[in-house]
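User: What would this chain look like folded?
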Amino acid sequence: MHPLPPSNLGRRRCLAGVPLLAVGMFVRPALADPTVERASTQLLGTQIDIIAQDARPGAAGAAMRAAFVEMARLECLMSRYRPDSQVSALARAAGRNPVPVAPEVMAVFKLARQVSEQSRGAFDITVGAYSGWNFDPEHSRIPSSSELARERRFVNYRDVVLEERHCSVYLRRPGMRLDLGGIAKLPILEAGMRVLRQHGIRDAMINGGGDVVASGKLQGHEWRVGLRDPLAPERLLGVVTLSDGVVASSGDYERYFMHNGQRFHHVLDPETGLPAHGPHGVTLIGRDVDDVNGLGAAIMAAGTATGQRMLAPMLARVDALIVGSGVRPWMSAGMATRLRQFSASS
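Assistant: Here's the prediction, encoded as structure tokens.
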């Protein structure tokens, strides 16, 4: 990433003097530029960073505050951890009655259904029924096999009925719970970017835990995004550049704990309720959010070979990187052209 003023680095790690954000992006420090502003906050279970450039004094700061407000509003609608969210209301009404949802929520449900069908169920928002896991290393919990078997009955994306005419959603079976964590973040970041544009900001980037939405350029150059190596998260596989586009990263190296020498991570296989045994990480780059959203988690559950088949008809508009346990990661031709070796001096 081109030079920027440092700000609130918090939990980020450093690599060769470069502050490295949670999963996929880095920002070079310093070189004061009064047209560039940066702000961070905690949302969606991670740190959200916005960098914006605008020559109007104070314009970027006001726009970023408005973007955070909008993203927080949408999180309140879609978080399974908030009892007042529409997702929680759906769980309480499961098997009884439909629940009206906001148009933004319905759009996420429609995309979730599309990805579930495309992946033949490898992606499934009803994995929220597997509620016994705790991936906090200090309070980790592994549900019993009987618990997972009992909850498995409530996992089936086909039991999520979208009543688009009335903008409502119905869960067919009592006991069903939803988890939109694998598909709601990018649309929420995209909503934040829309707010920035409504405020006249054309050059901006929003990063949230490895998911990046970029618009325009920074100081006349394309945005630079560093891709972590899932097998060694302290280093980068390389750097990609983009102007208007989206980078979506999924991996088993962020939310996890170790137990008896085994890694337990948060990307669950809908079929078993256990952490997926597919690749360790997936990075997808596309022009639009809908092109890449949810596919990383689906590929981690379905496996590399199935993931390649899923991606095959999309490679004209999506660049892909899949990191398994082998010596070399698999990447599409577009990603091979795009990915550049990381240099701390560049």
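The domain at 71-182+209-346 is CATH 3.10.520.10 (T-fold). If you want, I can go into more detail on any region.
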